[in-house]
Amino acid sequence: MTIDALEAILIVPLIAAAVLAVLPGYRLTASLNVVAALATFLLSVSLFWTEPHSGDYLLVDDLNRVFIVLTTFVALTTSVFSASYIGHEIAIGRLSPRSVRFYHAMYQMLMFAMNLALTANNIGLMWVAIEVATLTTVLMVGIYRTHEALEAAWKYFILGSVGIALALFGTILVYMAARPVIGEGLNAMVWTVLVRHAAQFDAPLLNVAFVFLLLGYGTKVGLAPLHAWLPDAHAEGPTPISAVLSGLLLNVALYALLRFKMLLALNPASIAPGPLMVTMGLISCVFAAFMLYRRRDIKRMFAYSSIEHMGIIVFAFGMGGPIANFAALLHMTMHSLTKSAIFFTVGHIAQVKGTQKIADMGGLTVTNPLLGWALVVGVVAIAGLPPMGIFMSEFLVVSSTFARQPLLAILLAFGILVALGGLFLRLNTIAFGEPRGPSEPAHASYVPMFAHFAIVFAAGIYMPPGLVAGFENVARLLG
Amino acid sequence: MHGLTFDIAHMLAGSLVLVSFLELYQDRLMALINIYAVHAVVLTLSVAWQALIQDAPHLYITALIALSFKAIVIPVALRRIIVKLGIHREIDNVVGVGLAMLAGIGLVALSMVVMLRVTAEADPLAREDLAFALSVVLLGLLMMVTRRNAVSQVIGFMSLENGLVLAATGAKGMPLVVEISVAFSVLIAFIVIGIFLFRIRERFDTVDIQALDRFRGERR
After folding, report:
1. B62-87 residue pLDDT tens
2. Interface pTM (ipTM) of the complex?
3. Structural domains in chain A (count)
4. Does A359 touch chain B (CB under 8 A)?
C-alpha cells in the first residue's frame, strides 16, 4: 500500500506531534515545527496536480483544495512567527520548557485535526475532527494558566462543547434523513454518496438538521449570538494561537457548514438555507462593528473584527449565486491572510510593550517603525480600504447584494463603515501620537507578516487568471 | 415494530427524560452526582435494549462504555473531587425549582412538537427515540444555564451527551465510528474538565463560576 499526498498531509502532522511531544529543547523543536508545517504545505500544493484516490473516509475536490492550501500555508507562516514569539516568552519566563513541548505537540495535533476535517468524506469523521481541533485549542488557550486564561479556556470549552454537541445532533438527523434512501450503514454518512441522493431525502428532517448544524458549527464560526467564547479565547491564549484561530479554525467550521448547505441546496423540497445564514451573518457583522468601539485590549479588538468578517463571509455565502460565492471565497482567503498577519504584528507589539492594553501603547510608528507601520498596513487592509485585497472582496459582496437586495446591502455597508471607524479610532492611539510604554527594539520575525501583506496587496491589484478561474469553479459548485 | 419490544424501548427512553427532570431539581452536588449515575444506568439499559432489538452487537460495546465509564468511573471521581474541594454540602441554584421545572416542561413539549412533526414518515420507534433524545439534550442545556457551579455544569453537559448517545443508537445502523467517537470524546472531555477543575481550584479557591467573572479580560 502506498501513501498518497492526501494521506500524507494527515500523517505528517501526526508524526510531528508525537516527535515534538518527546523532544526537549526549544530551538530544535521550534525549527522541527516549521519543517513539519513546510512539508505539509508542499504536500497540500501537490494535491493540485496529483489525483489522489478519494475513498469512503477521505476526499479531495475543488472545494476543499482551496481550504487545504490556505490552511497549510497560514500554518506554515504561523509556525515561523511562533518560533520567535515563543522564544521571547521563554526568555521572560512566561512559558516553561515543558509547556513549550506541550504547545508544539498540540500545534501539530491541531494541524492534523484541521486537515482531517477538511479532507473528511464522512460527516461523522468530520465532526470528530472538529471536536479534536476544539479540544486542542482549549488546551492551548489555557496554557498561560493565569486567571484570565483559565476563564477564557473554560468558557471556550463549555460553549464549544455545546456547539459541537448540537452539530452532532444535526449530523445524526442527516443520517436519519439519508437512511431510507441509501440504506443502513456507512454509506449513509459518506459525503459523496449523500450528494448523489440528496434530492430524495426527507425534506422536513433535513431542515431541522440544518438548523442544528447552523447553530452548532455556527458557534465555532463565531456568529453573533453564539460568539461569546471568541474574544476571550483570542485575547488570553498565546498570539500564534489567536492567529490560527482567527485565520484557520473559523474557516474550518465554516467549511463544514458549507458542505451541509450544498446538501440542502440539492434538495428541492427543503428550506433555502440562504436567508438563515444571511440573517446571522448580518447580525454578526453589525453587532461586532459596534463592539469594536469599546475595546481596551488590542487582541480582543481584533477578535471582534474577526466576528465582523466572518459575518460578512457567512452573509455572502448565504446570498449565494456565482458572484456572491466568489466574493465570499475571496474574502475568506484575504481575511485569513490579513488577520493572521495582524496577529503576528500584534503579538510582537504586545511583547515589546509588555501589555495588551491599548491605553499603554502609543506612537509605535516612531518607537518601532517597522511594527508600527505593519500595523497601519494591516488595519488599512482589514478595514477594507483600497488597494488591498479585502477592498476587492468587500466591494464585490456589497455591489452584488445591491443588485438583488438593496436594503440588505445598505445594512451591510453600514456595518463595514462602523467597523472602519472603530478600527481607525484605536489605530490612531496605538500607531501615532505620544509614545507610551517601553520601546526597546523588537526581535521580531518580519517575514511571515510581510509575506501575507504582500499577497493581500497583490491580490488587490492583480489576480492571476488561473486563481480567478479556480475560485469561479468553486463558486459554481456552491450554487 | 409495535408490541413489547417497542414498549420497552419507549419506556427506557422516556425514563431517561424523567431522570433528566430529577437532575434538574437537585440542588445538592452529592445528590446530583447520584442522579447522574442513575441517568447513565438508564442510558445503558436503553442502549442494550436497542442492541438486542436491532440485532446490532456493536451497540453492546456502547452500552458497556456507558455503564462502566459514565455510571461508575465518572460519578466516583466527581464525588472524590467535590469532597476534596470541600464543596459537597454546597447548594447550587440560580433559578427556583419551580421555574426550572416549568422551563423543562416547555422544552420537552417543544422537542415533541418539532421532532414528531418532521419525522412523520420515519418508523415510529426511531421518531419517538429522536423526540426523547432531543428532550434530554435540551434539558442538559437548561441545566448548564441554570447552574453556577462548574461541577453541575459539567454534569449538565454529560447528560446532554447521554441524549446524543440515545439519538445515535436509536438511528438504526448508524456506523460504529460515531458511537465510539462519542464515548471517546466524553473521555477526553472529562480529562480536560478534570484538569480544569483542579487548576481552577488552585487559582480561585472556589469552583463557583461567578467568581471567575471577576477576572474578565477587560476589567483590569
Report:
1. 888 888 878 887 888 778 777 777 77
2. 0.85
3. 1
4. no
